[in-house]
Amino acid sequence: MALASSIAAAPAVAPAAPPLDIDLSAATRLLVISPHPDDGTLGGGGLMQRVRRLGGAVRVVQITSGDAFSAGLMAEAHITRPTPSDYRRYGALRERESAAALGALGVARSNVITLGFPDDGLCELAPERHTITAAAYKSPYTNRESPPRSERILSGIAYRGEDLGRELQRILVDFRPTLVLIPHPRDEHPDHCTTHLWMHEALAAVAAGRSPITPVVLHYLVHYPNWPTAAAGGGAPLAPPASLVTANSQWRSFSLTDREREAKARALVTYKSQMLAIGPFLRSFDRANELFMETEPEGHAACWCRGEDVAAPQRSAARRTATSKQ
Question: Phi then psi for 288, rounded to 5 degrees?
């Protein structure tokens, strides 16, 4: 979330996107994948409410606890040299805040799964970098090499990329979603684009299984240079960054009712520790609409990890080929 510390006054944005045309009903099973505790609410808080209001099921998966956001921790705890125990306590705080925020959106705590993987370390576990036999990554913030025991879905899980992939596959198989909301591949936070890579690996695996799972996939954007701006007058429609709009891009706008927008605004301020550090950024997602991309963008979407692109071009090409055959 440190990438969101400033908001430009007037970025280049495209015209408003056409409306999202998707059937939502009591049969909808929405799975929201959130790299950090607040991302799912920022990108899809209104969509979650709509599905719940129609009687559908919503499950939110938080890949990390957001425990490595030093600026937020220091603002919340008024300390300048956090220790591993401070980071762990902060992660637990963010989980509690998220449970309250999602509750305001109609998502019960029993439908929130936190996997406890390393905040600001997911890109070290990208598909091209690690296998299940690799040594576990150690978070320099919490000193953990595995998720807390209470947050492990499978036994023997550690901070290895393939372990994250296996847990995501298990969640897909258990929940069998009809609709999945995941980070946009060109989101410039490495935790977000890495989450995108692993979700596509997991979706491809369950689509090829004995009982195929082929949900509709929508992408949401949180971190991108000079985007979004603070809403002029509050609630101004959100439009995509102009640099991410091409002739074939399929950005779609999901309009919120007044009631949905008000509930989302209440949920956002429930992330109290984040409001202390990046309040204007969170409030910039208080809009009359939410924005989703329906398809994978064309071309290679880089995912930068400490100066290295961990989204291999050949892997991206393979995903596009597989998608085109479906």
Answer: -80, -5
Would you say 189 and 6 are in contact if contact means Cβ atoms under 8 Å apart?
A: no
Query: Domains of the chain, with CATH numbers?
Result: 2-325 (3.40.50.10320)
Computed on alpha carbons and rounded to an integer, the radius of gyration of the chain in Å comes to 18
CB 197 within 8 A of CB 184: no
Quick one: pLDDT at residue 134?
73
Burial of 214 (0-12, 13-18, 19+ CB in 10 A): exposed
Q: Which residues pair with 219 in a beta bridge?
A: 182, 293
Burial 131-156 (b: 16+ CB within 10 A, else e): eeeeeebbbebbebebbeeebbbeee
pLDDT digits (tens, 9 = 90+) for 274-295: 999 999 999 999 999 999 999 8
CA 188 – CA 305 distance, rounded (Å): 10
Question: For strand 308-309 and strand 304-305, is the pairing parallel, antiparallel, or unpaired?
Answer: antiparallel
Q: Dihedral (C-alpha) 258, 264, 269, 273: value to the nearest 10 degrees?
A: -170
Q: Percentage of the chain surpassing pLDDT 70?
A: 89
How far, CA to CA in Å, does 11 sit from each of 2, 7, 129, 240, 305?
19, 9, 34, 10, 25
- 13 or 173: which leads in pLDDT: 173
pTM: 0.91
